[in-house]
Amino acid sequence: MPILNIEFKAATKRLNELETLLKQYNPVFIGEDHQVDTYFNVNKNRLKLREGNIENALIHYERENTAGSKSSHVLLYQHQPDKTLKEILIKTLGIKAVVDKKRKIYFISNVKFHFDTVAGLGTFVEVEAIDKDGTIGRDKLQAQCDEYAALFNIEAADFCSHSYSDMIM
Questions:
Q1: What is the pLDDT tens value at each position of the chain, 169 positions in all?
Q2: Using an 8 Å Cβ cutoff, are 39 and 87 in contact?
């Protein structure tokens, strides 16, 4: 079953300041992860293999390239690290892009926060309001994203419309 996210990504030069601000709300700190996301050539949408210390997943998602908060439909397959899976994907689909990042991960309820330093791109904050089972609804997810964008004082020009893979390419 696809997971519904409403999410935004914003470029920021205030990464540490925003993280400090979030800590005032007692988020659950998941940890700091070094992640390498390998994006594969697919006809539509996006497919990436995330390899990290904390998160390892094959992720297919549909999302429009628009600035600000946007919906994303995600199919997530979590797995143990396995070189064979990556080899199969490379041989069958080919690599589109590779994104290397350091990511601090926090949660408040169903909302996930990423404080990212992306090689070759800079620093970003991402907020994902997540509805895993359809019980929260699009309106509440949108309100949560709006609330955190306002808290972080994100300006319209800061919102990113594209994924890191698009920016790398």
A1: 678 899 999 999 999 999 999 999 999 999 999 999 999 999 989 999 999 999 999 999 988 888 888 888 889 999 999 899 999 999 999 999 999 999 999 999 999 999 999 999 999 999 999 999 989 999 999 999 999 999 999 999 999 999 999 999 9
A2: no
> How far is residue 116 CA from its own chain's centroid?
9
State how beta strands 3-11 and 122-131 pair: antiparallel
What CA–CA distance (Å, rounded) separates 54 from 112?
14
Whole-angstrom Cα distance, residue 124 to residue 126?
A: 7
In which domain, by residue range, is 135 found? Answer: 3-168
Write down how long the chain is.
Answer: 169
Which pair of structure tokens corresponds to residue 92? 């069958």
**Number of domains into which the chain is organized:** 1
Look up residue 102 and give its two tokens.
Answer: 């350091």
Look up the CATH number of the domain holding residue 149. Answer: 2.40.320.10
How far apart, in whole angstroms, are the C-alpha atoms of residue 109 and residue 35?
23
pTM over 0.85: yes
